[in-house]
TrEMBL record:
PANTHER family on file: STAGE 0 SPORULATION PROTEIN A HOMOLOG, TRANSCRIPTIONAL REGULATOR-RELATED
Sorted UniProt keywords: Phosphoprotein
Name this polypeptide is given: LytTR family two component transcriptional regulator
Entry-linked CDD domains: REC
Species name: Bogoriella caseilytica
InterPro entries according to UniProt: CheY-like_superfamily (IPR011006), LytR-like (IPR046947), LytTR_DNA-bd_dom (IPR007492), Sig_transdc_resp-reg_receiver (IPR001789)
Every HTH LytTR-type domain range: 131-230
Residues with PTM 4-aspartylphosphate: D57
């Protein structure tokens, strides 16, 4: 479910964007999680990379949209930023913060829908390289290249990355189905390993980046070695 932020100080403009999003949902059989912010500082001061798309007004009192975009880009290089503006003169500045595009007010639905098509296509391309994790009110978008392995213990999943751990409730078999074609392999009942981080294979274990050693079950070892060889060979093409 795509997560979208509307950052717009004008109540009528916010209502129009919300109406457009709901219409787009209905016409495309989609469902969005939508947060609204009336001030740029509300998003910029404590931004976390949980959004897929940010609809961002440029002309706002206090912290303007361009400053918000710069703050976002300091911690999130992937979120799609779509500027909503009264003036086309901001277009060049938008490229400096890697905004996908800008839309002039008043925003006609046909233009909005076309930009949403582009935005969601970019989100879909990005999702091939990320794992979305939700636990309670916490949401994280984790770069798969940073994931060492996933561990399951009584339906409690721990995602081990180079620098952090994330916990949520889930089934490892569901993650296996999602991640197998992205370079992950089920080394044993409790671990799903990122093959890109395997640095050595021993008699009954594999060694990961940083020295962590995980058990490879005997019934899975042959398939594990085959998957590892295919992954290494494919990465060199």
């Amino acid at each position: 479910m795509p997560r979208i932020a509307i950052v717009e100080d004008d109540e009528m403009a916010r209502a129009v964007l919300m109406e457009h999003l709901r219409r787009y949902e209905s016409e495309n059989s989609l469902s969005f999680t939508i947060d609204t912010h009336t001030e740029g500082s509300a998003l910029a001061d404590d931004y976390r990379p949980v959004y897929d798309i940010v609809l961002l007004d440029i002309e706002m009192p206090g912290v303007d949209g361009m400053a918000v975009a710069r703050a976002i880009r300091e911690v999130d290089g992937d979120v799609v930023i779509l500027f909503i503006t009264n003036s086309p003169q901001h277009a060049i500045s938008g490229y400096r913060v890697a905004a996908l595009s800008y839309v002039l007010k008043p925003v006609p639905y046909s233009v909005f829908a076309a930009e949403m098509d582009r935005s969601l296509e970019q989100v879909r391309r990005r999702e091939r390289h990320h794992l979305m994790i939700s636990s309670g009110n916490e949401h994280h978008r984790v770069d798969l290249s940073e994931v060492l392995y996933l561990e399951s213990n009584r339906h409690r999943i721990t995602v081990h990355t180079r620098s952090a751990e994330y916990h949520f409730t889930g089934a490892l078999k569901d993650l296996e189905a999602e991640l197998t074609d992205k370079g992950f392999f089920r080394a044993n009942h409790g671990y799903l390993v990122n093959l890109a981080h395997v640095t050595a294979v021993r008699q009954s274990t594999c060694v990961l980046t940083g020295g962590r050693e995980l058990q490879v079950s005997r019934p899975r070892k042959k398939a594990f070695l085959t998957a590892l060889a295919d992954h290494v060979g494919g990465s060199r093409l």
